[in-house]
Amino acid sequence: MKIRTKLIITHLLIMLVLLGSLTYVLVKRSSDLVFDNIIENATLSLSQVRVNLDHKLGSYEDIANTLYLNTSLQDMLMRHFPDLRDAYDEYFANFEPLDSAVKITQNVSRLIIYTDNPSFVFANFHLIDNDVKSSNWYQAVIQSPFGAYWTASYMNEFPVERVFSLRKRLNKQDPNSPIVVSIEVNVSVLNELIHEESKGKRFIFTMPDGVVLIDSSDANPIKHLDELSFAKQIQTSAEGKLQYKDGKETYEVLYQTLNSRNVVKGMKVITLIPVTELMPKINQLKSLSFGLFIIACVISAALIFAFSLGLTRRFTELSIKMRRVHKDNFQSFIEVKGKDEVAQLGQIFNVMVKRLGQLVNERYQSEIDRQEQALRTKEVELYALQAQIKPHFLFNILNTIRGKLLIAGDRENAQLVGLLAKSFRMMLKSGGQTIPLTEEIEFIEIYLQLQSYRYVDKFVFDIQIPVEMMRMTIPKLCLQPLVENAITHGIELKKASSQIWISGEFIDGHIHLIVRDDGLGISAQRLDEIHRWLQEDSTLSRDAHIGLQNVHRRLRDLYGEAYGLLIESEEGQGTKVTMIIPEQPLQRGDTDV
């Protein structure tokens, strides 16, 4: 078989595989994007319906709250009128104008007053009898902490229409008053909210207890959310989406929850979208993609045929252009047999490989140099972090000596200066980055004794470190900033006497050194800020909490991301800071305990 024929067949097969794969991936991805876009639009539509429902129900709750605050109306409803004419006068003077205004301006079907006062014998006044008291809605209103309850829809006798109602206690004047007002609203008000969005969709509004307020389905409306198989999933989450199959039809179910006000809080807005409604656009996209695939195949086949015919005539020209690379006079890496164009391409390939190897070697050498420079920079930064702590500590101690001299004269200064001198000697002691834990604990004891001179009777401390842990090594000056932080932020501003505990534990092959106090503690918001600071990359740019941040960065740079500081605190309950490091016993040449 000629090379020309091989090239045509090979290119046609590759073209079909690549175009077919690409078309499939693009159609699948585009279909998913179209589907996701439709679902996103449906979600936005559902959110708008939820907001509109919230506003609409809120307007009726405002009416109920206005009636609740109308003390003159409640006085009238609780007053007994021996003469019914007086009741008529009060009704037309106080209630009838309010009833008319609400019906006209707020699209309310009617107001109904449930009362135990037999003085009012009007059509929209109902006497509270045993049937009313035992009804589910009345019990819900009485037991509600807000004194209000939204009912499901029901048929009204006069006028004959389907309504739903908000029932609210009017007990501002008398907390024990059984009077309830029912604000009845035509269901058409809710239908108007979903008129545009409900085309091809099904909307369901449910009460917090699952009772259905309205179901836009004409075929099989439900009365309670439990009638749907996915009710439990909807009731246990505030919002989301899921797929639901009913017979042969599959639905995308989207749901959201009203949370703005107390009475409507927990109400669900649910929409069911048939997947068949979403398929026309996706099928149209698939048809377009298939047509484009056929056209691309035809054009590609023609181009491949023309390219293959001219390819053999261009081999010589291509090899001549590739020989220009030989000006660098590179040696070959592979054995080339023959003198045809393929052999020439092989020779040029060897030259390109050699050049590529040189470039790779140069790249690796550059990377090695960069990493060495980064390591040197990191080492300098580690020492800089350690150096930041020392001046801060020395400054505090000198202030302590100055304050003590001003307040107490020369008493006890000999001991104080002795401790200070010992602390200087230990702090400035030469050595590596790690020291035995026993030396760090000795330094902490001296530091706490010095601070006890500054804060007389302000705190006591207790150090409990296992003997076997004292032979471990830790980074130098990493525990002192934790103790200093406990005194400065937890104990200094506290009026009562406090205590500091320093302890150690072995947990899962790690050392946990714990500094705990019963001071002021840290608020949740402040604790979140400190956690964020500990994760910041910059180590030398922040003045606040520099000790904690430096220690945390030193531990991570020395041992890895699994180590560092763990801060726990509760406002008013104290703070606990845990330093986690690996077990590192003393080596030969280190200072022993």
TrEMBL record:
Residues 361-388 form a coiled coil. Keywords: Cell membrane, Coiled coil, Kinase, Membrane, Phosphoprotein, Transferase, Transmembrane, Transmembrane helix. It is a multi-pass membrane protein. GO terms for molecular function: protein histidine kinase activity. Its EC number is 2.7.13.3. The chain crosses the membrane at residues 7-27, 288-312. InterPro entries: Bact_2-comp_sensor_kinase (IPR050640), HAMP_dom (IPR003660), HATPase_C_sf (IPR036890), HATPase_dom (IPR003594), Sig_transdc_His_kin_internal (IPR010559). It is found in: Cell membrane. Its main location: membrane. Residues 309-361 form the HAMP domain. It is an enzyme of class 2 (transferase). This is Two-component system sensor histidine kinase YesM. Signal peptide: none annotated. It holds the Pfam family HAMP. PROSITE patterns: HAMP (PS50885).
